[in-house]
Write a structure and sequence with these properties.
The chain is of the alpha/beta class. The chain is about 30% helix and about 25% strand. The chain is built from twelve helices and 20 strands. The strands form five sheets. Strands 8-6-1-12-13-14-17-18-19-20 form a ten-stranded mixed sheet, sandwiched between helices. It has a four-stranded mixed sheet with strand order 5-2-10-11. Strands 3-4 form a two-stranded antiparallel ribbon. β10 (about 105-110) and β11 form a beta hairpin. α1 crosses α10 (about 290-305) and α11 (about 310-320) crosses α12. The chain is globular. The two termini are about 30 Å apart.
Length: about 350
Amino acid sequence: MKSLHFGSAVIDIITLVASENIERATFSNDEKSFLMLEAGRKLPAQSISSNVGGGACNTAVSLARRGWQAAVRAKVGDDLNAAAIREHMSANDLVDRMIDSDLATGTAVMVASHDRNASIFVHRGANEALVPDDIGDLDGHDLVYIAPMSSGSADCFPLVAERAKQAGAMVASNPGIRQLLNKTEAFLGALQHLDLVSINRVEADALVPSLAFGGAASGTPADGPPLLRRGLLFGTVRIGLKPFMQMLQAKGPKWVLLTDGMDGAYLMTPGGEVIWHPALPAEVAGTAGAGDAFCSTTTAALAEGLAPEDALAQASANAASVVSFVDTTAGLLGAADLANRLAAVPTSLAETL
């Protein structure tokens, strides 16, 4: 099967800092933590490494490991970082459909400590500069996967989705938070062209004001997984999890995937059922790339015809493997390794809510 991946291609510079060398402040009422860096001080690092990442590259590697022919459509500069990305693509059997730009290749600096949930400084560079003429030919792909896009590139999102659907591909999108906040109407309008949309809890909360008009159900059950009990919340506006997913599905996607980190993930099927799968245990070295692994694995498994419960199980196993590594792709598993991992897991962790 063939896939084409739009989004970012970046160099990730990952710094691990021992907990005793950096302070962390956590606000219990706001569910946020902050790493505190002392100005003017050199901090000892446990390791500093340079790796290839970005949503387009991460998800393409994910599918290539499954045996797909995966291609990347992203913008890079004429620099050493672009050469490193192309070398990474060749090593992972990816098809290079990247576009050269006068801007610098995107770069991210990740600082991870304590729970290894990294703070990320990002210079998006060429990743923000996709224009309609860059979209290219979308024919001949079984799947077009649209990873997070930002700034000028996000303006192309509706057109990519529409052209991919016209080309007969399955179209999946995992938008980023800036895209949802700054291009909300364009994103919601493009849902009619998607087969699958995937967002995390923070991104879902950000969409609440745009979906709450018309008196969405706000009641939440007393029992069930955490996000089912909490619902989606923006300020004082709350929407129940199922009504929220139903409203997204009504705009076009057959499948709606909502991830909640270590509290599992929820998938609404074309028939309107919501299936929850818990996260699998993992020794966390870094959380970056877990979302890309989960969303791309779920999408590929569904495209291959797997049952939704099996798709979620594979995605959970792949994400658990990814977080056991510092970078975003070293832990991505192929089909055989996924099967071996799942053989050691209880057979039916998924629940229909």
